[in-house]
Each structure stands twice: as structure tokens, then as C-alpha cells.
Design a protein that fits this description.
- It is found in: Golgi apparatus membrane.
- It is a single chain.
- This protein is of the alpha/beta class and 395 residues long.
- It folds into 2 domains: 40 residues; 306 residues, P-loop containing nucleotide triphosphate hydrolases (Rossmann fold).
- Helix content is 49%, strand content 6%.
- A 5-stranded parallel sheet has the order 2-3-1-4-5.
- α11 runs parallel beside α17 and α12 crosses α17.
- The longest helix is centred in the first third of the chain and has 32 residues.
- It is globular.
- It starts with a helix and ends with a helix.
- Bound molecules: 2-acetamido-2-deoxy-beta-D-glucopyranose (4 copies).
- One 2-acetamido-2-deoxy-beta-D-glucopyranose (NAG) binds next to α16.
């Protein structure tokens, strides 16, 4: 039958006009597809955030920038009640806030898979190394994404789904590490992982980033991986952060609401918690801040603070014991090996005056950092409360 038909077709010549018509349709649809692809491609590019996939610089645990941001929580974990007879509302609030179960999002995870969507320049390279060592000690598998030329941290919905599917396919227990915005697995009806992250004083972080991308080894390493990358302008390399801010250089002007794709995206630590929405992109806005806070409260098991490694480790050990059991020991036993990772020796000091100028424009970023810090101390205090119930009750 088929052969018969084919034979018939061959014998009957198709009229010339039909051939021309078909050719015309083919050409125009190719053109249409080409334009459409180009449009999609440029839209995709707009969504991309150029994250230089370099690694983080490590700060020692004691390198506190206490002048930067004051916390009203006591790092010692002791709650001071100046007056025995405080009004009921305040007392009620205190007990409510220090409910260890309410503060434990690990319990709300559906699978024993740790998702560390690490923020760059917060010492996360060191935490990654810590996790790698813990994976051998505590028996879980360790996964991270590979170094990319242009790292995309804001993903289109389809890519979010692919990422969530991939992470959900890992066997339990596992850890997955990637520079990426908060990805809501529940939105895709996929089991929720255990979210963790680390934050850092946002102004210290932006200074660290500034010198990090100028460090010679950063370029040498990248050039080795991607030989065709152009070399940077020497004048750009020589520019220091202080004069960059004082001269109001484009690179060091931090303007509210500004959508600054590319390297500038590093200014916003909140982006990594806010999510992939375009509401998360403008710099220093209330909207992005609120979304970021909500994600932390609802989903993150622990958001550690670089400036307080000890509290971070204690909270991680107690709230996510399956993965972080023995973390403090591993960290301090091998701390010399850890602190050598990615330390930037090319970072000159920056005066408080210049830092204050920058802080004036980082208000929401600072608020978010303080929010995470307070939550971490709350989690620490909640541990103390359960351990010394009698003492606390007698206050
Ligand atoms: C801070 O923002 C103001 C405008 O709101 C701008 O004039 C100033 O240049 C910014 N300063 C820095 C250091 O980004
Ligand atoms: C994540 O998605 C779930 C389900 O759609 C929703 O209830 C939750 O509020 C989302 N979380 C955030 C931080 O948007
Ligand atoms: C952190 O903990 C280590 C080990 O327990 C200790 O030696 C160090 O003094 C602590 N650092 C701070 C700043 O408390
Ligand atoms: C938090 O929940 C996890 C998982 O259920 C549990 O292993 C851990 O002990 C809990 N931590 C605290 C401090 O309640």
C-alpha cells in the first residue's frame, strides 16, 4: 500500500506554484522561529544575573565588625529581665518567641535533603568544606553544582522546576549546594528540603566582593578555566573602594529601587532569600525585604551569620543534627585548613566614614541581616530555655 502510494507520488509531478508556496511558507516560518528564539534569548539574558563563580574569601571567626551593626540580642544567649513584674503582653511574647518547635523548620522538611543556596562572599566556601568533611563523618552524600562562566541565580519557572526535581531525586540523606535564589519546592508540589544559608554584614560583604573580583588569582583561575575571557582594564583594577565611593563612581553608587543586573547584583544579599520574582531585583526595597524575611521565617531551618561562627555552629548542630553533628569539633580541629581557603590578601582597609556613607543606602539589607541575626540568637536562646527550664522559670 505504502509503496504503491509513494510510487504514485513520484509519478505525478507537483505543480510548480505549490512548490513555490511551500518554499515561501517554510522560509517565513523559519524567520518567525528565528525572531522568536532571539526574543526568548534576550529575555533570558535579562533574567540572568552575572555571578562570577569564584569562591569565597574566609574570615576568621573572631573578625567581628561590631561597629557595623548592633544587635539587640545578647550573643551570650542570656535573656535579661530587668524588671520582675513586666506586663503580661511582653512575657507572653517572650515565651511565644522562644518556642523551640516553632523555631525548628527542620521538622517541616519533607525529605532529609539539605539545600544550601549559598550567598557569595559570606565565607560559604568554608561552610561548603565543612559540609564536605561532615558528609564523610555523618554519612550523607555531598553534591554541588559545577563552576560556570556566567552563573544564573534567578531562574525562569521551568528552570526552577528542573532544579527542584533534580534536588528531589537525590537519595536521603544528601546535601546540594548552589549559588541560586530561594527556590520554593512546595510551589511545584515537590517535597520541601531543609533550607540553610549564611549571611554577612552587607557592607563588609560588598567591600569584600569589590576586592575579590580585583584579586589577581581570581583572574588567573578564571582565565585557566575560560581562556577566551578578556583581561580587565588596569585602571579598573587599581581603583580602590574608598575613592570609588567618594568619587561617586557608577560602580559604587547604591541607589534605591535600581535594577542593576550583572555584577551589581551582588549588592543584594536579600536576593538569595527573596526568590526568583522580579519584585526581588530592585535594590534596597521594602518589598524584597519583606519577601526575604518571610522565606526565612517559613522555610529556612538555619540562616547562620559569618560574624558569629560559634553561634552558627551550635544552632546548626542542634537544629539539624542529622547533618551537623560534631560540626564545631570538625570546624575547630581543622580550622587551619579551613581559614586558608580563599582568603583575599589584597583587601586594603576601608574607613568608617566611607562605610557609613554606604550603610546609609543599605538600610533594608542591614535590616535583613539584623533580622537573620536575631533569629539565630532566638534559636540559641530557645535551646538554653529547654535545657535549663527551672532557672528560666524562676526569673
Ligand atoms: C545614596 O543614595 C543617594 C540617593 O538616594 C545618592 O545620591 C548617593 O549617591 C548614594 N550614595 C552611595 C554611596 O551610594
Ligand atoms: C511557597 O509555596 C507555598 C505553596 O505555594 C506557599 O504556601 C508559600 O507561602 C510559599 N513561600 C514563600 C516564601 O513564598
Ligand atoms: C568559639 O569556640 C571556640 C571553640 O569552642 C573557642 O576556642 C573560641 O574562643 C570561640 N570564639 C568566640 C569568639 O567565642
Ligand atoms: C529540630 O528538628 C529536627 C528534625 O525533627 C530534630 O532532629 C532536632 O533535634 C530538632 N531540634 C531542636 C532544637 O528541637
Amino acid at each position: 500500500m505504502l509503496n504503491d502510494n509513494a510510487w504514485k507520488h513520484r509519478r505525478m509531478p507537483v505543480p510548480k506554484r505549490t512548490i513555490e508556496l511551500i518554499a515561501l511558507i517554510a522560509i517565513s516560518s523559519t524567520l518567525f522561529l528565528f525572531l522568536h528564539t532571539r526574543e526568548l534569548h534576550s529575555r533570558l539574558r535579562k533574567m540572568e544575573v552575572r555571578l562570577q563563580p569564584g569562591e569565597d574569601e574566609m574570615l576568621s571567626a573572631n573578625q567581628l565588625s561590631s561597629e557595623g551593626v548592633q544587635t539587640d540580642s545578647s550573643p551570650s544567649g542570656i535573656v535579661h529581665y530587668p524588671n520582675r513584674h513586666r506586663i503580661f503582653a511582653i512575657k507572653y511574647k517572650e515565651t511565644e518567641v522562644l518556642d523551640v518547635e516553632a523555631l525548628n523548620n527542620t521538622r517541616r522538611a519533607d525529605r532529609s535533603v539539605l539545600f544550601f543556596n549559598r550567598v557569595p562572599k559570606v565565607g560559604s566556601q568554608t561552610f561548603m568544606e565543612l559540609l564536605r568533611r561532615l558528609s564523610m563523618r555523618n554519612g550523607f552524600s555531598f553534591n554541588r553544582d559545577r563552576v560556570q562562566r556566567v552563573e544564573t541565580i534567578r531562574l525562569a519557572p521551568i528552570e526552577q522546576l528542573q532544579l527542584a526535581r533534580m534536588v528531589s531525586s537525590y537519595s536521603e540523606p544528601s546535601v546540594y549546594i548552589k549559588h541560586v535564589c530561594f527556590t520554593n519546592f512546595t510551589e511545584f508540589n515537590l517535597p520541601q528540603p531543609i533550607y540553610i544559608n549564611i549571611v554577612r554584614d552587607p557592607v563588609e560583604r560588598v567591600i569584600s566582593w569589590y576586592y575579590y573580583v580585583r584579586a589577581p588569582w581570581y583572574y588567573v583561575e578564571r582565565k585557566q578555566i575560560f581562556p577566551d575571557l578578556p583581561l580587565p582594564d588596569p585602571n579598573w583594577l587599581k581603583k580602590d573602594f574608598e575613592s570609588c565611593v567618594l568619587k561617586a563612581d557608577r560602580e559604587c553608587r547604591y541607589l534605591e529601587g535600581e535594577i542593576h543586573e550583572g555584577i551589581g547584583d551582588h549588592r543584594r544579599q536579600t536576593l538569595f532569600f527573596c526568590g526568583h520574582s522580579e519584585k526581588c531585583t530592585p535594590f534596597n526595597t521594602v518589598g524584597a525585604l519583606e519577601r526575604a524575611k518571610m522565606a526565612v521565617e517559613k522555610h529556612y531551618a538555619v540562616v547562620g551569620v559569618l560574624e558569629d561562627v560559634n553561634t552558627t555552629l551550635t544552632v546548626l548542630e542542634n537544629y539539624i543534627p542529622r547533618f551537623f553533628r560534631g560540626a564545631t569539633d570538625v570546624y575547630y580541629d581543622e580550622v587551619n585548613a579551613f581559614t586558608r581557603i580563599n582568603r583575599n590578601f589584597f583587601k586594603p582597609p576601608v574607613s568608617e566614614e566611607v562605610k557609613d556613607m554606604v550603610r546609609g543606602n543599605f538600610t533594608r539589607e542591614i535590616e535583613f541581616y539584623q533580622f537573620c541575626k536575631q533569629r539565630l540568637y532566638k534559636q540559641l536562646r530557645a535551646l538554653k530555655l529547654t535545657k535549663t527550664t527551672y532557672e528560666t522559670n524562676s526569673l
